[in-house]
Amino acid sequence: MFLERIADVLIYIGKNLSFYGASATEIEYYISKISDAYDIDVNIAAIGTVITLTVVDDHGKSITRIERVSYSEINFEKLSLWENMIKRVTEEKPTIFTLKQWIKDIEKKENSLGISFWKNIIAVFIASFGFCFVFRGNYKDAIASGISALLVYMATYKITSKIFRDFLAGLLVYSVIKLISKIVSISIFPSLAGGIMVFVPGLLLTNAIMEIGDRNLVSGSSKLMEAIFMLGSLVLGAAMASALWG
Amino acid sequence: MDTEIITRILMAFLATGGFSFLFKTPKRLLPIASLTGGLGWAAYEVIKLFYGFESAIILSSAVVGFLSHIFAKIFKTNVHPFITAGIVPLVPGASAFFAVKSFIDKNQSQASNFAYETFVSAFGIVIGIAISSYVSKILNKKDIDTEKTI
After folding, report:
1. Is ipTM beyond 0.90?
2. Residues A71 and A143 in one domain
């Protein structure tokens, strides 16, 4: 019973870390740290979207849990809540009951951390505005870039399929910029570059690279593949729009 | 330094800030995450002037990686809020698009230039981050060893 409770809590923590953007190496590291604190033998493998965990007791009895994390929401603020809790666990070594209580407290805090959709829209505008300048655009290009990115962000906000969302984003960003260019004279290159940068899978790419560097090869290469597909969808969406517009 | 370069660096700072906000980076870390992006881009611009595009992408990615590890240590947090936001300006999203577009337009020479740029950027980022992660790990290990000795 104790073994089962431990396994359930650990897999739940692993799932949340993965959900909010931790890399496979970090998930394995954190879970191992907790198990070291409790002096329990735990084997964990976070492979892409699956976490496998086996807890072994002193008598050699073991229990395994497998969890699929098919969707993720990048949220570094929530991730840091979980990381802080893990630090506290390793320092204070609470009972499983207290640990479950801490998890409930985090979930309450998570609910209070909602970020307004409109603030996100402003952030999208600022990001694409800035990126347009980075790619040698001027004020007019940057405003066009910002407008196109925020419109497309709003249109694709609810789409959960990442590849479809990025394809649509590429297609729409190019189309909106092309429409704006018919009204105001702007350069397509910097405007488009700024607009699509917001949809680039940055975290997936850096996690993939870091995981491959840590010899977490299966997880790293599967994430790299996903990042390449997402980037490809974005680019092909924009390229298709470019062909349609002539 | 050219005012255009300075504007681009400032805008990289701003853009990275916007991007960090989208990743729900904790508010106290937002300016630092933006700074990582700004400094990474500054490194890219300066190195590119003297040593060309290839060295610039590798070294600026390494700079972003090092800064992220340093900031993560200072602020006792994860490396992700800094490295993810900082690396985004260097990701070859735009050049990949223009490579594909040039292929569609049957402009092979321009397409191969953009494809080369995309290839170098992608692998440059991989090499840069790998260098910074490896060196940071060695330094961290040294720190731990020194603490143990003391």
Report:
1. no
2. no
Residues of chain A with C-beta less than 8 angstroms from the C-beta of B123: none
DSSP state of A59: T
Token look-up 């897999």 returns: A11
Q: Does A13 share its domain with A65?
A: yes
Interface contact flag, A209 B85, Cβ < 8 Å: no
User: By three-state DSSP, how is residue B71 classified?
Assistant: helix
| Pair A33, A85: CB distance under 8 Å | no
Question: Half-sphere exposure (CA, 13 Å, Cβ side) for A164?
Answer: 7
* B15 closest CB neighbour out of A77, A134, A242: A134
- Domain assignment of residue A129, given as a range: 117-245
Provide the residue type at B79 as one letter.
V
Check B23 against A76: CB less than 8 A apart: yes
Q: Which residues in chain A have their CB less than 8 angstroms from residue B16's CB?
A: 127, 130
Do A16 and A104 belong to one domain? yes
Say if pTM beats, i.e. exceeds, 0.90. no
Chain A contact for B118, CB < 8 A? no
Put simply, the answer to whether B80 touches A22 (Cβ < 8 Å) is yes
Number of domains in chain A: 2
Range of the domain at B127: 3-149
For residues A81 and A141, membership in a common domain is answered with no
Listed residue (A148, A150, A153, A155) closest to A179, CA to CA = A148
Q: Among A59, A76, A111, which residue terminates a domain?
A: A111
Amino acid at A29: Y
Helix orientation angle between A217-245 and B93-104, rounded to the nearest 10 degrees: 50
Judge if A140 and A163 occupy the same domain: yes
- pLDDT tens digits along B82-134: 998 898 889 887 787 778 778 877 888 988 998 898 888 888 988 998 899 88
